Amino acid sequence: MVAVGEIGLDFYRSFSPHDTQVRVFRRQLETAAAVAKPVAIHCRSAHEVLFPIVESWSRGLGCRLPDGRPLGIMHYFSGDAAMALRYVELGFLISVHCSVTYPKARHLQEVARRVHLDALVVETDSPYGSPQSRRSQRNEPAYVAEAIAKISQLRGEPIDHVAEATTENALRLFAQSKRTPTISQSQAARGI
After folding, report:
1. How far apart are CA 162 and CA 153, in angstroms?
2. Which of 36, 38, 114, 146 can pair with 131 through a Cys bridge, CB separation 3.0 to 4.6 Å?
3. What does the angle CA 138 – CA 96 – CA 3 come to, to the nearest 5 degrees?
4. How many folded domains does the chain comprise?
């Protein structure tokens, strides 16, 4: 086990009562602290409730895991840049996703610009949230390259630099060593 999660609060769809979600989320955070593992947090339409809970929990841990790693990742981040920076102060990485390629995703583009590169990771959340160029299609892990390209453009930094830094951040969070890249199934199927 490399992390606890995906855990968090989702007040958008509200399949569970909010108080139940909060109670379970607190227990999940306690579990993560007990096993000294980072958390992958999902937060949808609930930052105003989730942030104070995470703030209290993270301060109790000194904003780092015992081995110095970040406390976790804010998966498929949906807040604004100011909120992202507050989570970073608490010891979290911010996950920017393929939605950053949407012309109207100005809040996420601002997150990609303002959050320091050592606090960013990139994801696809496949099969959801395809990049703009494939908006009506099923998302695939290989499309993370489009998110990286957009982040690179927004930051004015080379694509390779953004890709390497965000990959290193994820490896650091999950206490993994650098691996030799492998060909994905989708690349293999296309003969790449």
Report:
1. 10
2. 146
3. 90
4. 1
Evaluate whether 108 touches 100 at the Cβ level (below 8 Å): yes
Q: What does the buried/exposed string (b/e) look like for 8-30 if buried means 16 or more CB atoms within 10 Å of the residue's CB?
A: bbbbeeeeeeeeebbeebeebbe
Amino acid sitting at position 155: R
Per-residue pLDDT reduced to its tens digit, 105-137: 999 999 999 999 999 999 999 999 999 999 989
We report the CATH number of the domain holding residue 55 as: 3.20.20.140
Read off the pTM: 0.90
Phi and psi at 155, nearest 5°, equal -90, -15
Contacts (Cβ under 8 Å, ≥6 apart) of 128: 139
Cα–chain-centroid distance for residue 64? 17
Which H helix or E strand runs over 73?
strand 72-74
Instruction: Name every residue whose Cβ is closer than 8 Å to that of residue 54 and which is 6 or more positions away in sequence.
Output: 29, 41, 87, 90, 92
Contact between 28 and 39 under an 8 Å Cβ cutoff? The reply is yes
C-alpha 88/C-alpha 152 separation (Å) is 20
Parent domain of 48: 4-189
